[in-house]
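Moderator note: this is an archived Q&A kept for reference. The question asked for a predicted structure of one protein chain; the sequence and the answer are reproduced below.
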Amino acid sequence: MKRVLLLIKRKGARETIMQKTEYLALLRGINVGGNNIIKMNELKKLFAEINCTDVVTYIQSGNIIFCAAEKAKTKITDKIAKILYKKLNSKITMALLTFAEMQEIIAKKPEGFGAAKDKYKYDVIFLIKPLQARDALKAFELRAGVDQISAGKNVLYFSRLIKQLTKSKLAKIAASPIYPDITIRNWNTTEKLAELMAKKRK
C-alpha cells in the first residue's frame, strides 16, 4: 500500500505527518452507451476538488488512480459518488481498491488465466461491496466447453473461448439482480492498471 508523506505545520505545535494511500476507483457505467459522458480531464478535476492528489486516468471507461489521506473506503466512495452525482445527475457506483489488493488480484489469478490470449478472452469481474464472491458465483450461468469462472478476493475471473464467444453466457449477467453490483474489466486493462499503480510508487 503506497503511503505518501506530507508535512503539515501547525501554529504553536511541532510538525505532524499525514500519510496518503494510493487507490484505484473503477467507476461503473461511465461513458457507456451514450450515458454518463464525461471527459477524463473533467474527471480528474472533480477528484481534485475532493482533495485527491496525483490523479491518473486510464482509457475512457472510468479507471482512476489517485492518492487520498482518508483511510475509510466508505467515506471515499461517498465523496466520489456525491461529486459525480452533482456533475452527471446520475448515481455512480464503484469498486475501490488499494495497491495491495490489486497486487493480490494479479498474483492469485487461477493457474493459466491470461496465458492464452489468442485462444481465450479473459475478464475480471470486480464486486462492489457488500456483494461477496460466493454469492456472485451463483448468479453466473456457464456454457460447457466455452465458459470458465473462478472466485478470488472480491473478484471473479471469467474466461471464454474466442471461437465460441457468441455461445458464451456471460452477457446474461446483465439480467441478474447482482448486475448493478459488479463492474468488469478485461485482463489486459487489469494488468495495465496494476502496472500504472506500481509505476507511481517508484
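Archived answer notes: Confidence is low (pLDDT under 50) at residues 1-17.
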